[in-house]
Design brief:
mainly alpha, two-stranded antiparallel sheet, 75% helix, ND/Mrp_TM
């Protein structure tokens, strides 16, 4: 493969890397006053990278994908699909961020630059077909995230969130590196195809330990039980736009990375890791649902909701089939829309002085003073609960169907039963907004950008979203097929 082809396949990362470096210079010389223009240019760069990625995904000439830089990076429909979700989520976050920091004056041009470099790392993660490339992308994304978590200098909770995320993230990286070293030591390779060939002949004890440690390190990144302990504290302490970012774009990247690792280099040993995934899926569903019931802070509640949704997504991975992978990708699209919409609605909850409010008691009777906002938030909650005809129901349906088709009927049955628990706290939010006495706390108005993002995500998860299911199904089928073709 020539360098020209390699750079062509990696053009989304090249666009974002060059844009990030250029905007960093703008931020350095123009100072804080350039924050708005840097944000606009960052959105433009992400949009451009997304358009080119969509071209790679839809062009029949690239149906089989291609390797870049001697086989350490793979351009295929799977990676392109994940990148589009990552870029869209990041664009949505950047659109609604600046209003949040207006009251404190802490918004600086470094913020969108960090988002861009995080997107570069996430793009490398989902396209990596070598353990070294995987780790480089993961660390680039993580380093940006550590800074973003502690971005609000005047808020002690933000500093605490950044420190917790950094310490636990370093621990997870160490676990992942140890697992990668075991895999390399017992297979003699770091590229996925060679690892797959080595494990096809049988799984030694060292390989098994390496597999377990790699999956444990990646489980931290997706906040799956039992590696979820950082999520509620970091989500609550970080600035709300950063929390929305953590719950969407990096989550997509980490889940896509887990899918590629499990089904590509470890694809010959599905039975060896299926039990781990089943346990983590069920534990995440139950712990996420039970943990959210007693939460009074909306951000902590949505953190447990994120853990709960990861459990449902992992049911598709447990199936270990192409249908299961396609179901995960469908669920991811709806999950990004539901989570982004929910956090944007929380961002719009402001008191009369423009300060953020984020407790459940603060939104009591919200439907009487902010009908549109309450309606959109209610749609998000009903969709997250999996109530038809909203698209959250369809996301759960496809992963359960994939599990049943893979003869994991008991797993699907337990998952369906456990989803009833989660419905309780979602419906509780709706009940507080529509049936409790008004608290009169929320008095501020949302800005135009927030309303645009909230309206688009609400329409996507509404029954109108079914108009896009054929288009979405074609993309997810191609992405899942590319993943199994690579394996």
């Amino acid at each position: 493969m020539s360098y020209a082809s390699s750079f062509y396949f990696t053009l989304p990362e090249v666009i974002l890397s060059l844009s990030g470096l250029a905007l960093l210079m703008v931020a350095a010389f123009a100072g804080k006053a350039s924050a708005r223009i840097v944000t606009i240019l960052s959105v433009a760069a992400l949009f451009g990278a997304g358009i080119f990625t969509a071209h790679l995904l839809s062009d029949p000439a690239f149906a089989l994908g291609g390797d870049a830089f001697s086989g350490v990076y793979r351009m295929d429909a799977f990676g392109s699909y994940a990148k589009i979700l990552i870029y869209l989520a990041t664009i949505g976050i950047l659109m609604v961020t600046q209003r949040y920091f207006d009251s404190t004056g802490e918004y600086r041009p470094e913020y969108p630059v960090l988002m861009i470099f995080g997107a570069v790392g996430m793009g490398m993660m989902v396209s990596a077909v070598d353990l070294m490339t995987l780790y480089l992308g993961l660390e680039l994304s993580s380093l940006s995230s550590y800074v973003l978590a502690s971005y609000a200098r005047s808020d002690g909770r933000s500093a605490e969130a950044g420190l917790k995320y950094f310490v636990l993230g370093a621990l997870a990286s160490g676990i992942l590196l140890y697992g990668m070293s075991l895999v390399y030591g017992f297979t003699g390779a770091t590229d996925y195809l060679s690892i797959l060939a080595a494990m096809s002949d049988g799984l030694s004890g060292g390989m098994l330990f390496g597999l377990v440690f790699v999956l444990a390190g990646l489980a931290f990144k997706i906040s799956a039980v039992p590696f979820h302990m950082w999520t509620p504290d970091v989500y609550e302490g970080a600035p709300t736009p950063v929390t929305a970012f953590f719950a969407t774009a990096p989550k997509v990247a980490a889940i896509a990375l887990l899918m590629r690792v499990a089904l590509d280099p470890f694809g010959a040993q599905v039975d060896a890791w299926r039990q781990i995934v089943i346990f983590s899926a069920l534990a995440s569903i139950v712990v996420g649902a039970l943990g959210a019931i007693g939460q009074a802070n909306l951000k902590r509640l949505l953190a447990y909701s994120s853990i709960n949704n990861v459990g449902f997504i992992l049911i598709g991975l447990a199936a270990g089939t192409q249908a299961g992978a396609g179901a995960m990708l469908v669920y991811l699209a709806f999950y990004v829309a539901m989570t982004l919409g929910s956090f944007v609605a929380v961002l719009m909850l402001r008191d009369g002085e423009g300060r953020q409010v984020e407790t459940l008691a603060d939104i009591a009777g919200l439907s009487r003073s902010h009908k549109g906002l309450a309606l959109c938030l209610a749609v998000m909650m009903f969709s997250l609960a999996g109530i038809p005809p909203l698209m959250g129901f369809w996301g759960k349906f496809v992963v359960f169907r994939a599990a049943v088709d893979a003869d994991l009927i008991l797993l699907a049955a337990v998952g369906i039963a456990a989803s009833v628990i989660g419905a309780f706290y979602y419906l509780k939010i709706v009940k507080v907004m529509y049936f409790d006495e008004p608290a009169g706390v929320v008095a501020g108005k949302g800005d135009a950008a927030s309303w645009v993002v909230l309206a688009l995500t609400t329409l996507f998860v509404s029954p109108l979203g079914f108009l896009l299911t054929i288009w979405l199904g074609n993309w997810t089928n191609r992405a899942a097929a590319a993943l199994f073709f690579a394996a």
